[in-house]
């Protein structure tokens, strides 16, 4: 009989592993340290999968340091319809406000990109899937109107699950309101660049996101109105390969160019230089 007894193997024992330090890439299954991911603009260093960026991370990436001036920061949504369900709309708003530190799903303001002043709005998918309600629509509209008044270009970075149905028809109204402001902006001879990220769907994709003078998309972003499953079940047809990806839409003329996130700032800066009228 042996002197030492081998301890039994316990497969149920959990490893002590700090939470929030590592993320698993959904494309290649690589484990990536969160610090490395942030330093790499939330792009997988192995397969180039583009993770979701917060609005503030994207503003920091795109704009010159210390040039962003936020507008309409205090606007918050109101539960006009008194929506009830598993959780009230008011409770859901408070939960996401606490979780993200945002009042709603978009940040808007003025800034500079390589010294060029612009009006910019960036949607944040972490806030109720960046759905567009009254506040999102109003902030986007004011962003465009401010640019028209000051004769500035507009950049809107979209990422959204569509219209915010907690607000019913009020959310759908924002589609027309944002497009109306952009139409007046275009009539003034001023450029609008739309940046589509993963995913951009629903009422957002059917309104301001796809009426840009130039439409830029990140690689493999899903862009469309209804989801592939809904379309397949409705039409009873097999969908084309890579349907509703940025690459598919570029081939079919909706997207003008696909730009890797690391090259996005330089590309947008060059586009602004080409399109913005000189005073």
TrEMBL record:
Provide the protein name. Answer: Acetyl-coenzyme A carboxylase carboxyl transferase subunit beta
Q: What is its EC number?
A: 2.1.3.15
Q: How does it assemble?
A: Acetyl-CoA carboxylase is a heterohexamer composed of biotin carboxyl carrier protein (AccB), biotin carboxylase (AccC) and two subunits each of ACCase subunit alpha (AccA) and ACCase subunit beta (AccD).
Q: Where is the CoA carboxyltransferase N-terminal domain?
A: 21-279
Q: Which family does it belong to?
A: Belongs to the AccD/PCCB family.
InterPro entries (UniProt xref)? AcCoA_carboxyl_beta, Acetyl_CoA_COase_Trfase_b_su, ClpP/crotonase-like_dom_sf, COA_CT_N, Znf-ACC
Q: Where are the zinc fingers (C4-type)?
A: 25-47
Q: Does the keyword Protein biosynthesis apply?
A: no
What does this chain do? Component of the acetyl coenzyme A carboxylase (ACC) complex. Biotin carboxylase (BC) catalyzes the carboxylation of biotin on its carrier protein (BCCP) and then the CO(2) group is transferred by the transcarboxylase to acetyl-CoA to form malonyl-CoA.
The record ties this protein, via Gene3D superfamilies, to:
2-enoyl-CoA Hydratase, Chain A, domain 1 (3.90.226.10)
The UniProt keywords, alphabetically, are: ATP-binding, Cytoplasm, Fatty acid biosynthesis, Fatty acid metabolism, Lipid biosynthesis, Lipid metabolism, Metal-binding, Nucleotide-binding, Transferase, Zinc, Zinc-finger
């Amino acid at each position: 009989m042996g002197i030492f007894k081998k301890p039994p193997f316990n497969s149920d024992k959990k490893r002590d592993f700090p939470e929030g330090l590592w993320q698993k890439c959904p494309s290649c299954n690589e484990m990536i340290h969160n610090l490395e991911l942030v330093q790499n603009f939330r792009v997988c260093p192995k397969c180039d999968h583009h993770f979701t960026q917060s609005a503030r991370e994207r503003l920091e990436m795109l704009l010159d340091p210390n040039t962003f001036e936020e507008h309409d920061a205090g606007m918050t949504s109101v539960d006009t319809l008194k929506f009830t369900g598993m959780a009230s709309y008011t409770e859901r708003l408070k939960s996401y406000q606490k979780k993200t530190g945002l009042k709603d799903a978009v940040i808007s303001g003025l800034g500079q990109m390589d010294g060029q002043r612009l009006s910019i709005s960036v949607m944040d998918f972490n806030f109720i899937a960046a759905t567009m309600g009254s506040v999102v629509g109003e902030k986007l509209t004011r962003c465009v109107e401010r640019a028209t008044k000051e004769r500035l270009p507009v950049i809107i970075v979209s990422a959204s699950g569509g219209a915010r149905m907690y607000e019913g028809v009020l959310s759908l109204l924002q589609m027309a309101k944002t497009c109306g402001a952009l139409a007046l902006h275009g009539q003034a001879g001023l450029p609008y660049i739309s940046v589509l990220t993963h995913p951009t769907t629903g009422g957002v994709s059917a309104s301001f996101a796809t009426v840009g003078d130039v439409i830029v998309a990140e690689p493999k972003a899903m862009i469309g109105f209804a989801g592939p499953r809904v379309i397949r079940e409705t039409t009873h047809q097999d969908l084309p390969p890579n349907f509703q990806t940025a690459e598919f839409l570029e081939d079919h003329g909706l997207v003008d160019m696909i730009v890797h996130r690391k090259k996005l700032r330089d590309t947008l800066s060059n586009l602004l230089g080409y399109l913005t009228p000189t005073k």
